[in-house]
Amino acid sequence: MNSIFPPHRRPRRLRTSPVMRDFTAETDLNPSRFVLPMFIADGLDAPRDISSLPGVQQHTTDSLLAAVEGAAEAGVKAVDLFGVPLDSDKDADGSCGIAEDGVLNRALSAVRERFGDDVLVIADTCLDEFTDHGHCGVLTVDDRGRTVVENDATLQRYADMAVAQANAGAHVVSPSGMMDGQVQVIREALDDAGHQDVSIMAYSAKYASAFYGPFREAVGSSLQGDRRTYQQDARNLRESILETQLDIDEGADMVMVKPGMPYLDVLREIADMSPVPVATYQVSGEYAMISAAAQNGWIDLEPAIMESLYGLRRAGADIILTYWAVKAARLLKG
Ligand code: PBG
Predict the structure, then answer these.
(1) Which of 124, 238, 258, 264 lies in the 20 to 30 Å Cα band around 164?
(2) What does the entry give for GO biological process (predicted)?
């Protein structure tokens, strides 16, 4: 009988030095596949810190442009913009998210004008930041007297919003509201408006998640209650395949799984079935929890960031949205 001692197979050989480990690494991260989510707020004189997202700010137009420039210098060439309107501009239909002079559309124009095609301008296409009730769509009372988010009426708003964002200069629109049929309606509206080259990054498998907590502070969300009638249930995997397949059939150019870390199995499944690039969003709660542990001295921040990003990449993400995009790009440069 062959003894296992001494072993012929010695996997440790490939771990003997940093150069050898780099040489044999199975997974790479490339900053040109990072997306930096950014917040642009109305009514600010100076950028404002977001307490639950240390290091992330609500921007003025000037500070936004400076931050985009810094990101591009670090190698991050894609930004995803979220608008934070004045509370007094919010209404039941989220009109200020669609208006040409709304905070998000003004920011999209400013960034596109300054950076042209050197930076990919991605727009969050969703109403929740702009509605006074905080839901991702318009509300109606159904025949049992329940207040619900009305799918098809919301679709029309999304179509108008996507066209307004494309007019403002977005290269990519990113519907995140999880309404049925949203990709198809947006694709048709963009095409009708002559925006055939504007692409759609669809939040396809987006879960109703407790990990969005800090984001809601970041955008000054007005939401009471939850989004469980439109975002996915955390217990489901197969459902995300259906959602993603529908989005691809409707014309999504890229699909997304969100959040990241609690859904690595979903990400792997989607990466295996998708014929289009797969993104994942390392959401605010993932950022906040690692940041908070690091601030307490409980974990080492930089290795934890890189491990979290390699995990997403290893699970199949082509594109990663992360508030650490710039920091990670700098760490990768060494
Ligand atoms: C909805 C939207 C949300 C996030 C991105 N787009 C919040 C939600 O669905 O409640 C969360 C992102 C994050 O937590 O970092 N427009």
Answers:
(1) 258
(2) protoporphyrinogen IX biosynthetic process
